[in-house]
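User: Please fill in residues for this 564-position structure.
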């Protein structure tokens, strides 16, 4: 593979059209742009509302980065300010309202926002961590002062569109494995992504796109709002995700499309079945990280096909296109021939996976590598104020995803976890995702996260956090029988510790957070079951005395640093 650094089209202004041009083209469109509860906005009304916010932003602009922080649940004001930023040349920073304390304070300090738009809950949270903000720099959208501000600008004129290279969004990464980074996205790149998504998923002005995923996440803005603007489709917005509200919402709005992230499908499927579930207009659902079990169950219950996508907010051209024709656990095949799986140390392409007669991956150490696009820098616009992370992502002139994968002999790709998801047990290296896929087969499991726990004898012990189907308790004998019946579960892959959690820790975008699980290990009040002897098949409940004795073994072997 050639090691050349291709021209970065985004940085050099390679996008011909920005979101402002797409919005201005709808300034006289009376078709539906936005639905929220019983409220409706036409595209003409929505674009004018965006012009009002654009004028306010320009009037209140101060020296420094033209960044506007949005801290609120999903609501029309969020989209009005996003569109207003597109018209004014401002940059929106979507702040995760589920973060608190030092984490939120760090996000805010890093984002350099000169103006905040928030709701009452967000305003209270903001006051706790950003005391230096002047009162006139924070707009509570439910306050009388804000209503007066909108009224004063209600006749705002439509501005000329900014350059497509203008930075429109700073998107915080999920923070599922490390501190969140701020991904740059220009107005031109968002317009480009919207047109690609609209073409691929055959969006039209007749579509009604239901979105309950958070607007601070790229799945909502890049995968739903941008293509809706591109073709003039309607967006039906929910304040936040609710499994019980899903069916009533898609029926009320007559939605034709919806998006999901992470465990959303699992929670929908945990609600009681209803005889009218297939009475809907859904033609397609798009999302990421759903299990095959959930995809099949959802399609059966709601009569709606699902399309899984694999990509990143950063871009990098790392598109893996899922197909129902592929193996059950495959994420699909690369969209571009420049996407490869490589050894992160040498850059050499990894060989195809080899499976034994039972389907167990026998050459994991050689076959699993990092997903890269050797010509993917054109769609990566960088991180805000994080040159170290940017350099790591772009070394060798390639785009490095930080995601691990392997491929079979027919070219189907399989996700193997994040780079931090590697485990080493008895000198065997493997990753968490294949083990998680096996655990998801267990009928009692609704959620599973596999991660490395330290082993006093050296290396790692496989630990799994399991979220059980409601109404079920952990049966160690039944679980052991299940594990023994899985032919592709390698001997070193078998969990040694199992933590039963009420809910798997999630980010604000419903992605699994393994960092707290790794940090807590067995130091938790949740039930922890273990095989005290790694070679035993007997599971026992870990007592406080067991935990203390286990910790003491690390000290006795001089490995107490592994517990820090």
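Assistant: Residues filled in for all 564 positions:
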């Amino acid at each position: 593979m050639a090691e050349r650094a291709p021209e970065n089209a985004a940085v050099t202004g390679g996008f011909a059209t920005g979101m402002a041009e797409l919005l201005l083209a709808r300034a006289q469109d009376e078709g539906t742009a936005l639905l929220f509860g019983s409220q409706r906005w036409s595209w003409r009304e929505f674009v004018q509302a965006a012009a009002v916010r654009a004028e306010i932003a320009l009037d209140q602009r101060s020296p420094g980065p033209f960044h506007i922080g949005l801290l609120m649940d999903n609501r029309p004001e969020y989209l009005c300010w996003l569109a207003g930023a597109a018209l004014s040349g401002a940059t929106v920073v979507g702040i995760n309202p589920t973060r608190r304390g030092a984490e939120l304070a760090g996000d805010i300090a890093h984002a350099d926002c000169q103006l905040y738009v928030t709701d009452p809950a967000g305003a209270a949270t903001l006051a706790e961590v950003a005391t230096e903000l002047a009162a006139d720099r924070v707009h509570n959208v439910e306050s009388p002062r804000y209503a007066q501000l909108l009224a004063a600008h209600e006749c705002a004129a439509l501005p000329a569109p900014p350059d497509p290279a203008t930075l429109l969004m700073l998107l915080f990464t999920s923070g599922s494995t490390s501190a969140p980074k701020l991904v740059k996205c220009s107005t031109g790149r968002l317009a480009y992504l919207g047109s690609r998504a609209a073409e691929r998923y055959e969006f039209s002005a007749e579509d009604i796109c239901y979105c309950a995923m958070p607007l601070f996440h790229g799945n909502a803005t890049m995968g739903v709002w941008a293509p809706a603007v591109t073709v003039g489709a309607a967006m039906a917005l929910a304040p936040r995700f609710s499994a019980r509200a899903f069916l009533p919402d898609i029926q009320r709005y007559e939605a034709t499309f919806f998006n999901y992230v992470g465990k959303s499908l699992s929670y929908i499927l945990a609600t009681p079945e209803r005889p009218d579930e297939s009475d809907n207009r859904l033609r397609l659902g798009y999302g990421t990280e759903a299990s095959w079990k959930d995809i099949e169950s959802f399609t059966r219950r709601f009569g709606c096909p699902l399309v899984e996508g694999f990509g990143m907010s950063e871009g990098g051209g790392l598109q893996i296109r899922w197909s129902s024709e592929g193996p059950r656990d495959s994420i699909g095949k690369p969209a571009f021939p420049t996407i490869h799986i490589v050894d992160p140390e040498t850059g050499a392409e990894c060989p195809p996976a080899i499976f034994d007669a039972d389907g167990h991956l026998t050459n994991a150490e050689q076959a699993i590598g990092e997903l890269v696009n050797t010509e993917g820098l054109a769609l990566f616009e960088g991180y805000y104020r994080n040159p170290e992370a940017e350099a790591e992502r772009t070394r060798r002139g390639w785009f490095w995803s930080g995601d691990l994968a392997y491929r079979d002999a027919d070219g189907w790709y399989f996700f193997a976890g994040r780079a931090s998801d590697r485990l080493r047990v008895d000198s065997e290296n493997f990753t968490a995702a294949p083990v998680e896929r096996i655990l998801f087969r267990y009928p009692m499991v609704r959620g599973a996260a596999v991660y490395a726990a330290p082993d006093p004898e050296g290396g790692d012990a496989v630990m799994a956090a399991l979220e059980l189907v409601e109404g079920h308790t952990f049966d160690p004998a039944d679980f052991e029988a299940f594990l023994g019946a899985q032919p592709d579960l390698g001997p070193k892959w078998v969990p040694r510790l199992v933590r039963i959690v009420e809910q798997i820790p999630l980010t604000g975008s419903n992605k699994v957070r393994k960092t707290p699980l790794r940090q807590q290990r067995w130091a938790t009040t949740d039930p922890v079951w273990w095989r005290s002897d790694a070679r035993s098949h007997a599971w026992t409940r870990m007592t406080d005395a067991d935990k203390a004795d286990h910790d003491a073994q690390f000290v006795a072997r001089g490995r107490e640093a592994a517990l820090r």
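For context: The chain is about 30% helix and 20% strand.
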